[in-house]
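User: Can you recover a sequence for this backbone? Please restate the input before giving your answer.

Assistant: Of course. Working from this structure:
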């Protein structure tokens, strides 16, 4: 058995998605005598690899605290539509061509190879990313997966100069269907495309949190 890390690195200067556009900041604090460091962090919960919950798009939605642990793990499969060009719209045709059979309860990971190439190049990572067409998101949701993950920034509207929350339609399609949303994944090319594997998305159990940083990884035979 071996572990495959699917998580991007974050640190000072990592930029959040354009809806908030905040850079991560770490402030070290010290107490003596001797060496003792305890740092505080200012960041958007959606910075880097993270899980989104329905409270992200609905006032009465689930938070990180509400979701049982088994929702963050299970059988997963890769839908390889990559490598995708900048600003490529992932279509239903792309998914139908590439997707293996998706069963209810599967965790579906959509591979574009974008994060592997562009993570850390801000704001281009967000503004020129491949994105998911609404019809493609509905196609995925119709197969009743437990969760859907992307290794790109899947919202087209992030590149618009005056977008609103209502323009973030992929979030709404996925989260309002009761499906969990895994974002800013990487290294999906290290996963098999011919079989399912065990996947984990551990994250913080935080009250009132509509999203949570995560450490995505897979366990392969």
């Amino acid at each position: 058995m071996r572990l495959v890390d699917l998580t991007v690195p974050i640190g000072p200067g990592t930029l959040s998605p354009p809806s908030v556009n905040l850079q991560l900041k770490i402030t070290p604090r010290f107490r003596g005598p001797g060496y003792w460091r305890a740092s505080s962090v200012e960041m958007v919960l959606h910075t880097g690899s993270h899980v989104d919950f329905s409270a992200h798009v609905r006032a009465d939605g689930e938070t990180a605290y509400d979701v049982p642990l088994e929702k963050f793990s299970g059988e997963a499969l890769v839908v390889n539509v990559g490598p995708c060009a900048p600003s490529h719209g992932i279509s239903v045709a792309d998914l139908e061509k590439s997707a293996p059979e998706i069963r209810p309860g599967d965790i579906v990971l959509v591979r574009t190879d974008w994060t592997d190439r562009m993570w850390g190049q801000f704001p281009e990572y967000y503004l020129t990313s491949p994105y998911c067409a609404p019809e493609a998101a509905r196609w995925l949701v119709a197969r009743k997966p437990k969760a859907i993950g992307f290794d790109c920034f899947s919202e087209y509207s992030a590149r618009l100069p005056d977008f609103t929350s209502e323009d973030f339609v992929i979030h709404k399609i996925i989260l309002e269907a009761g499906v969990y949303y895994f974002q800013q994944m990487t290294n999906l090319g290290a996963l098999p495309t011919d079989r399912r594997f065990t996947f984990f998305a551990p994250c913080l159990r935080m009250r009132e949190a509509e999203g949570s940083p995560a450490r995505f990884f897979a366990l392969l035979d």
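That completes the design. The longest strand covers residues 73-80.
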